[in-house]
Amino acid sequence: MPELPEAEITKRKLVALLGKRIIGFWSDWPRGLRITKTVPEVARDIKGLKVIRIRRQGKVIFFEMRKGGRAGAQKLLAFHQRMSGALILKSHVREIPRHIHHRVIFAGEELLFRDPRKFGVVWYGRLSAVMADSYLARLGQDMLSVSFAEFKDRLSLRKGMIKALLLRQDVFSGIGNIIADEALWRAKIHPKKRSVALLPSEVRKLYNSIRGVIKDSIMVRGTSMRDWEHPDGSRGQFQRQLKVYGLAGKVCGRCKKERISRILVGGRGTWICSNCQK
After folding, report:
1. What are the pLDDT digits (tens) for 134-166?
2. What is the pLDDT confidence band of residue 94, given thresholds at 50, 70 and 90?
3. Fold of 4-137
4. pLDDT tens-digit series, residues 168-184
5. Model pTM?
6. How would you summarize the oligomeric state and partners of this protein (predicted)?
7. Per CATH, the architecture of 141-272 is what?
8. Which of 21, 58, 162, 218 could, after both became Cys, cross-link 174 (CB 3.0–4.6 A)?
9. CB atoms within 10 A of CB 276
């Protein structure tokens, strides 16, 4: 399940596409398209566009493009990898993997969107139209750019369970199940604890823990547990450093007393040490 670290790593490894022009687009899954919703329409309109910037917000990767000079209308192509997606550069793989449902074609290169479960999303259209999409328009500030003061203020305005709150992309974008569970374990906070009940010291500890998990994950190239891999086909190693996520039944590595258990928080599977996290 790609989260902020995986999206950031993907963005960094796609910089080779900067300055390149698109010569074609293919898809066998039009249900994954947003804004411009038919494959022929996307293929016709996207041809000739030059990638002028690649950026990221939360888990979404954006390609800003123009056909002409600065006066040309700016278009946006955006990807959300969702549950099982991965963006792959064709030149870096020996064989085309299965489950490729979208292709962006450049001269001498292709950007492949592999998505076994077909939950991924591709937005394409004028910049203003894409950013007005109901999901993107509500996307919260990227967690790596949120200051502690902003983090504290946003938590103070809400009363829900802290784990459910962290997963809301309109509050802080980029946090997923792995980051949330690992950060709450580091901060020794129970995921069902109400945000308004957190002590000031716990808020500070949680903020530092979230950013620490994100940066530690990026440092070891993200988490590759099932489907996700880098655009060049390599895989992340953060799964080797997980302390609670997916480790039900294992003895907690900190207290050495309690076994990790799996519970549900807001309908999401959640892994905790009930001895450490209060």
Report:
1. 999 999 999 999 999 999 999 998 999 999 999
2. confident
3. N-terminal domain of MutM-like DNA repair proteins (3.20.190)
4. 999 999 999 999 999 99
5. 0.96
6. Monomer.
7. Orthogonal Bundle (1.10)
8. 58
9. 22
Q: Which residues contact 85 (CB under 8 A, 6 or more apart)?
A: 2, 79, 113, 114, 115, 119, 120, 227, 228
Q: What pLDDT does residue 120 have?
A: 98
Which of 11, 13, 59, 66 is the catalytic position?
59
Q: Is the pLDDT of residue 69 over 70?
A: no
3 is catalytic: yes
For strands 121-126 and 33-35, give the pairing. parallel
Catalytic site residue from 82, 158, 254, 268:
268
Specify whether 59 is catalytic.
Answer: yes
Mark whether 2 is an active-site residue. yes
Same fold, 4-137 and 141-272: no
